[in-house]
Amino acid sequence: MPNTNSPYTAFAALLSSGGHPVSPAELHGLLLGRSCTGAGFDADSWLADAAHLLEAEPADNVRNALIGLQEMVKAELTGEDITIVLLLPGDDAPLTERAVALGQWCRGFLDGFGLNSGGLTLSTEAKEVLQDLAAISQVQDALEESEDGESDYMEVMEYLRVAPLLLYTELAKPAPAAAKPSLH
Fold first, then answer.
1. Residue 176, domain member (yes or no)
2. Is 118 inside any structural domain?
3. Span of the secretion signal (predicted)?
4. pLDDT higher than 60, residue 35
5. Structure pTM?
6. Cα distance between residue 9 and residue 104, in whole Å
7. Is the Cβ–Cβ distance between 21 and 55 less than 8 Å?
8. Range of the domain at 101
9. How many percent of the chain have pLDDT more than 90?
10. SS3 146
């Protein structure tokens, strides 16, 4: 019995009731992708980036949910113990459904990153992370309902919780104030 109270399910219901053909996973990926480029946390520019996925003007409840999602991501990326909670279906959802959401999350991340990464110079490591995400976005068909499928899914999920942090730390994390060169 899927958990209908999970944040994922609730958000999915909210989006579909607003007529938005997008998964929470893809939106969360989009948000994290743009955040990792240093796009910042201005609500209007986030809503503008989200608009092309939503395909329709969001009602207030959807706008508020998107802004809440951004606040959550901002807290995760800028907090002391940087941890990212992926917005994906709960463990009780069928593996195929979770794998599809994982692929959507990766596509969203790559879109969000791509929309905002113009002019950024990426390290080899950062490029490899993006290639990994592109590969993972194709993986959902390969995961089968089995013990191995479950463990593969968990491994990929763990990687996705770390990968954005590498990009964020490299590209977006504000440098410590002491390191600023003096302007005199």
1. no
2. yes
3. none
4. yes
5. 0.89
6. 15
7. yes
8. 7-170
9. 71
10. coil
